[in-house]
């Protein structure tokens, strides 16, 4: 068994497909046995580290589940490939399974999208970043263990190009659910309740702040865990000016909400008020259009009845 394992490992290190199939001939269950180990450097991890594209693709096709396994360092094969700057290999793996973009590594909960935001603004990184967004749009919502999105991470690591790609894609996205996605991502807060506006201000990134304050879904006066708004974190006079002109206030000037009052307001809402809104959300566009046509006809009939009541001449 050890000899077969060594042969498989050697095949992965050299990218030798002949040795791979020799090992499989000797033990048809060899890849299943590797898959059964909880945390292990699989042949796919080894090939990913070495950049053996064809070998990695062959393993992916023979045993797709190996692409999701974490090794003892908590890394999946795609994380290993990214760490070793094998961008073409990453591209090929994602082509086979786009869900790999959302796989989290063990220690920090970083996805491949997060890693790209940490790794600089090289042409290869930015090209992959855009490809990830197109292949798996919802990956922009994923957070690490500190509840940071890719935008938080790009700002923390001062990767303005990555931030611009992420933000630009988010506000220009026209797929179904785009508005909800934009609202959701822009309202995300990390473990310290910091929005991306807090982070960009804290990092002194005026370019990012200028972009964010123009966005209608950005919460300008959100307080973090220290009861600070972005304006409270601004140090330069220019940053303070940009935020103030956009309508950002200091935390001290914003009245804190009273949870008892909020609870009372929620309980007193007329349950009929959300009917039309929920109807819009749950209907297809075709059914919604048909419903609106019917409503117009009903309203028209009521209006005409009011003008000419029964019995009137």
Explained architecture:
- The protein is mainly alpha-helical and 313 residues long.
- The protein is built from 19 helices and no strands.
- The protein is globular and about 85 Å long.
- The mean pLDDT is 88.
- Pfam families: Ank_2.
- ANK repeats lie at residues 73-105.
Measured by DSSP, the beta-strand proportion falls in under 5%
- CATH top level assignment of the domain at 1-99: Mainly Alpha
Low-confidence segments, given as residue ranges, are none
> Which second-level CATH architecture of the domain at 1-99 applies?
Alpha Horseshoe
Keywords, please?
single chain, about 325 residues, Serine Threonine Protein Phosphatase 5, Tetratricopeptide repeat, Ankyrin_rpt
Short description:
Its main location: membrane. ANK repeats lie at residues 73-105. This protein is mainly α and 313 residues long.
């Amino acid at each position: 068994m050890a000899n077969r394992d060594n042969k498989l490992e050697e095949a992965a290190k050299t990218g030798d497909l002949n040795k791979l199939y020799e090992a499989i001939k000797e033990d048809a269950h060899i890849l299943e046995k590797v898959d059964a180990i909880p945390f292990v450097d699989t042949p796919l991890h080894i090939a990913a580290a070495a950049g053996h594209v064809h070998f990695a693709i062959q393993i992916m096709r023979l045993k797709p589940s190996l692409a999701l396994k974490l090794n003892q360092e908590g890394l999946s094969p795609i994380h290993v490939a990214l760490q070793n700057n094998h961008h073409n290999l990453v591209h090929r793996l994602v082509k086979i399974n786009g869900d790999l973009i959302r796989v989290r590594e063990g220690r920090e909960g970083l996805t491949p999208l997060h890693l790209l935001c940490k790794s600089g603004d090289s042409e290869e990184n930015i090209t992959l970043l855009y490809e990830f967004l197109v292949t798996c749009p919802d990956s922009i919502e994923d957070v690490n263990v500190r509840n940071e999105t890719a935008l938080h991470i790009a700002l923390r690591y001062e990767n303005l190009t990555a931030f611009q790609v992420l933000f630009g894609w988010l506000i220009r996205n026209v797929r179904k659910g785009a508005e909800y996605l934009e609202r959701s991502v822009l309202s995300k807060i990390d473990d310290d309740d910091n929005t991306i506006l807090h982070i960009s201000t804290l990092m002194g990134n005026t370019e990012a702040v200028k972009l964010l304050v123009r966005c209608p879904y950005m919460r300008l006066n959100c307080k973090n865990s220290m009861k600070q708004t972005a304006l409270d974190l601004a140090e330069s006079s220019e940053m303070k000016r940009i935020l103030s002109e956009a309508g950002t206030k200091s935390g001290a000037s914003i009245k804190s909400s009273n949870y008892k009052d909020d609870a009372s307001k929620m309980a007193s809402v007329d349950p009929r008020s959300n009917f039309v809104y929920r109807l819009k959300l749950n209907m297809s566009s075709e059914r919604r259009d048909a419903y609106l046509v019917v409503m117009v006809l009903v309203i028209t009939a009521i209006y005409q009845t009011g003008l000419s009541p029964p019995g009137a001449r």
